[in-house]
Design goal:
A 6-stranded mixed sheet has the order 7-6-1-3-2-8. Strands 4-5 form a two-stranded antiparallel sheet. The protein has a two-stranded antiparallel ribbon with strand order 9-10. By secondary structure, the protein is of the alpha+beta class. Helices cover 40% and strands 21% of the residues.
Length: 220
């Protein structure tokens, strides 16, 4: 093989490696994560996992100072954490603005004391903006929501916060067939059944429908 041919092979190889690297970067960049708090994280997870373009929604905690908090610690109060959900989505399928608009219309953003039947600091609404672009989009979505409702929206747009996933017991709760021995909504029922009974009893969908009417994305 002469020198000219060798250089051609080296160049071709370099181009191939470069294209592969670009492809890998594009795939990695094909997911954006928004962290929101909308009351019960089972409900937020259930809502957004039904959205085309959303790859996964993970229940957890954010906004507080306690490291690796448990569900019991957060709901008892004092940790500073919100029940939160990380929404991982493909921005080529659904935009950040669409996700944020849907979020506001899936909660009661006028309630500063919690959400629906769940009261207390851990059940408040919030958006945790990971960067300036998310912050600007969240502020715009908040302004739009306030204009649409004609009421003050109290959901804060906060800065980036460390997210702690809840334990496996709470993930995909809304669709789990695991049975619970004793719950406030029955004995020996599946998690998915308990979830539906809780959601209805808590009045989430009724209040969202009252506030947002036909623009509520997850209410029939």
């Amino acid at each position: 093989m002469n020198l000219s041919t060798l250089k051609s092979f080296v160049l071709a190889g370099s181009i191939a490696v470069g294209l592969l690297a670009q492809s890998t970067t594009a795939r990695a960049a094909g997911t954006e994560t928004l962290t929101v708090a909308g009351g019960c994280f089972w409900c937020v997870e259930s809502d957004f996992e039904s959205v085309r373009g959303v790859k996964e929604a993970i229940s957890g905690f954010a906004g507080g100072k306690t490291a690796n908090p448990t569900y019991k610690q957060v709901t008892a109060g004092g940790t500073g954490h919100y029940e939160a959900v990380q929404i991982q989505f493909d921005p080529d399928v659904i935009s950040r603005d669409q996700i944020l608009a849907m979020f506001f219309r899936s909660v009661d953003p006028t309630d500063a004391g919690g959400q629906f039947c769940d009261r207390g600091p851990s059940y408040r609404t919030a958006i945790f903006a990971a960067n300036d672009a998310q912050k600007a989009a969240a502020q715009k979505a908040k302004t739009d929501a306030q204009a649409a409702l004609g009421k003050k929206v109290v959901t804060p747009v906060l800065g980036a916060a460390k997210f702690y996933p809840a334990d496996a017991y709470h993930q995909d709760y809304y669709k789990s067939s695991d049975r619970l021995a004793v719950t406030s909504v029955g004995l020996g029922v599946k998690k998915s059944t308990a979830y539906k009974r809780y959601r209805k009893g808590c009045g989430r969908d009724a209040r969202v429908k009252q506030l947002w009417g036909s623009s509520a994305p997850f209410v029939n």
